[in-house]
Design a protein that fits this description.
Blueprint (H helix, E strand, L loop, with lengths): L7 H13 L2 E2 H12 L3 H13 L3 E4 L2 E4 L3 H17 L3 H11 L4 H12 L3
Antiparallel strand pairs: 1-3, 2-3
Helix pairs in contact: 1-2, 2-3
Length: 118
């Protein structure tokens, strides 16, 4: 099953959830007020929306994720890679390498990942 899309503001919410889960809805609303400036109503609306899409679960007023941070990041990367680089990893790496100066440490880590030794 494909990971449901998580939009930018929802992703910021999920970052807070992932750091604090499992967490009560009221505690999550307080965290979102502090970190995002959201009202309690906004937080509960996002919880409901994400619950409806299978991204979070609420049981006995406790909110937890059904989609991990890594799963969300991979889904976003896949979408960006397909949409922006027509699915081409070499095109993505070329664009990234032209923009960012890669250190020897970065290059070594990338080589290990490619070689499957990381």
């Amino acid at each position: 099953m494909a990971t449901p899309k998580i939009f930018e503001s929802e992703y910021r919410f999920c970052l807070i959830l992932w750091q604090n889960e499992p967490v009560t809805g009221s505690a999550l609303a307080k965290l979102c007020k502090e970190e995002l400036g959201w009202s309690r109503t906004t937080t509960y609306t996002v919880i409901k929306r994400l619950g409806d899409r299978g991204i979070v679960r609420v049981e006995n007023s406790v909110v937890s994720s059904l989609v991990s941070k890594e799963e969300a990041q991979i889904a976003q990367m896949d979408e960006m890679l397909e949409k922006t680089f027509e699915g081409s990893i070499p095109a993505f790496i070329t664009a990234f390498a032209k923009r960012e100066k890669l250190s020897e440490k970065d290059l070594s880590e990338i080589r290990k990942i490619i070689d499957g030794t990381a």
